[in-house]
């Protein structure tokens, strides 16, 4: 058994199905201490692998959810102005402390709000945490440049407190949906992996791991249908998350096998745009179901 297999097995223990290629970069990221950059389609397990890895390693998961306008105050730290004001007011009321003493106490860790990047630099009981920087393509370029800095030396300087350095660098996973191209400089610092939609067998394995209560027959039909659906010209193709959701909906409805009627009634679990749903009206759902069934035939 190689160390790559160990990573794949550990992830399987968290119901995460990891192929060889992803297992290899994950192993290398851990071994070399390099950030792992995962780019790919929506709902293909990019965020989930960070959760699974943290759970498998017994590490804390710290998540920085990126969005447009995210800045250092939200990502690293911020002073708790409200609490500082209260402290000032109560000092004034009691009339005790002089101004310089007050200044010393106001800028201490008691009044510091630690955000994910700073939290990730603090020692954790189980070892360095897993830092998930999720959907980095949603931030803007200045923040990306800032991240590049933070990821290169894992230290933060707070003027009033000094420099805080991670005793052991966190395990960093960045994800992107590629709504825009992330800068080369950031990518170069990381190990890169494109997470594609899984092939039939792997998707079936994922579905069985996440919805084991679904029968083999229904699972195979659902996966075959979704796989077939992805080859259609859709505005938004369904991810693995949709496959799992759909199977759970069908289970809740006690559906044993797919039919055009069942598909029409539950399509909202798979397709999230009205135009895509409209495309499957009429005979289209039946055509895709027939084609999906045809791909299942050889294996029974
Ligand atoms: N390889 C996998 N093994 C187990 N479960 C998986 C796998 N891939 C996806 N899933 C399931 O799909 C769901 C969605 O995955 P996840 O949230 O990681 O997608 P994502 O790639 O981060 O999508 P988005 O880009 O939309 O954020 C997970 O909650 C998990 O249940
Ligand atoms: Mg995600």
Task: Note down, in words, how this protein is organized.
With 300 residues, the protein is of the alpha/beta class. The protein has 3 domains: 3-76 and 115-195, P-loop containing nucleotide triphosphate hydrolases (Rossmann fold), CATH 3.40.50.300; 78-110; 200-295. It is built from 15 helices and 9 strands. It has helices at 3-12, 20-32, 46-57, 72-75, 81-94, 99-106, 116-119, 141-153, 184-188, 200-210, 216-229, 240-252, 260-266, 274-279, 284-296, and strands spanning 36-40, 61-65, 77-79, 112-114, 130-134, 155-158, 162-165, 171-176, 191-195. A 5-stranded parallel sheet has the order 2-5-8-1-9. The protein has a two-stranded antiparallel sheet with strand order 3-4. A two-stranded antiparallel ribbon has the order 6-7. Helix 10 (200-210) packs across helix 11 and helix 11 (216-229) crosses helix 15. The longest helix is centred in the N-terminal third of the chain and has 14 residues, at 81-94. It is elongated, with a radius of gyration of 24 Å. The mean pLDDT is 93. Residues 46-47, 134, 175 line the site of magnesium ion (MG). It comes from Rhabdonatronobacter sediminivivens. Residues 32-210 form the AAA+ ATPase domain. This is MoxR family ATPase. One of its GO terms (molecular function) is ATP binding. Pfam families: AAA_5 (PF07728).
Number of domains: 3
- C-alpha termini separation: 33 Å
Structural class: alpha/beta
Number of strands: 9
The string of secondary-structure elements, in order, is HHEHEHEHHEHEHEEEHEHHHHHH
**Architecture (CATH level 2) name of the largest domain:** 3-Layer(aba) Sandwich
List unreliable stretches of 5+ residues.
Answer: none
Overall pLDDT confidence:
93
- The CATH homologous superfamily of the largest domain is termed P-loop containing nucleotide triphosphate hydrolases
Please compute the radius of gyration using only Cα atoms.
24 Å
List the bound ligands: adenosine-5'-triphosphate, magnesium ion
Number of helical elements:
15
Shape verdict: elongated
């Amino acid at each position: 058994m190689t160390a790559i297999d160990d990573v794949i097995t550990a992830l399987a223990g968290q119901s995460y199905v990891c192929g060889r290629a992803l297992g290899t970069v994950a192993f290398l990221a851990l071994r070399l201490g390099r950030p792992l950059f995962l780019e790919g389609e929506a709902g293909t397990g990019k965020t989930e692998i960070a959760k699974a890895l943290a759970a498998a390693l017994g590490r804390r998961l710290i998540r920085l959810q990126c969005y447009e306008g995210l800045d250092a105050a939200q990502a690293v730290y911020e002073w708790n102005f409200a609490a500082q004001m209260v402290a000032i007011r109560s000092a004034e009321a009691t009339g005790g402390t002089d101004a310089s003493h007050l200044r010393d106490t106001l800028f201490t860790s008691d009044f510091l709000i630690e955000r994910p990047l700073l939290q990730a630099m603090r020692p954790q009981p189980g070892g360095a945490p897993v830092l998930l920087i999720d959907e980095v393509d949603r931030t803007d370029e200045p923040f990306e440049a800032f991240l590049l800095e933070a990821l290169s030396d894992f230290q933060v300087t707070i003027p009033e407190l000094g420099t805080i350095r991670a005793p052991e660098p966190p395990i960093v996973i960045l994800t992107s949906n590629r709504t825009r191209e992330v800068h080369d400089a950031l990518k170069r610092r990381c190990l890169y992996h494109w997470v594609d939609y899984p092939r039939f067998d792997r998707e079936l394995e994922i579905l069985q791991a996440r919805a084991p209560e679904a029968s083999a027959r229904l699972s195979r039909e659902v996966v075959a249908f979704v796989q077939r659906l992805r080859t259609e010209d859709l505005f938004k193709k369904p991810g693995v998350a949709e496959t799992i959701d759909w199977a759970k909906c069908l289970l809740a409805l006690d559906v044993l096998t797919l039919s055009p009627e069942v598909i029409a009634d539950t399509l909202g679990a798979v397709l999230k745009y009205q135009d895509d749903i409209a495309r499957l009206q009429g005979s289209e759902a039946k055509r895709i179901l027939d084609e999906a069934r045809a791909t299942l035939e050889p294996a029974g």
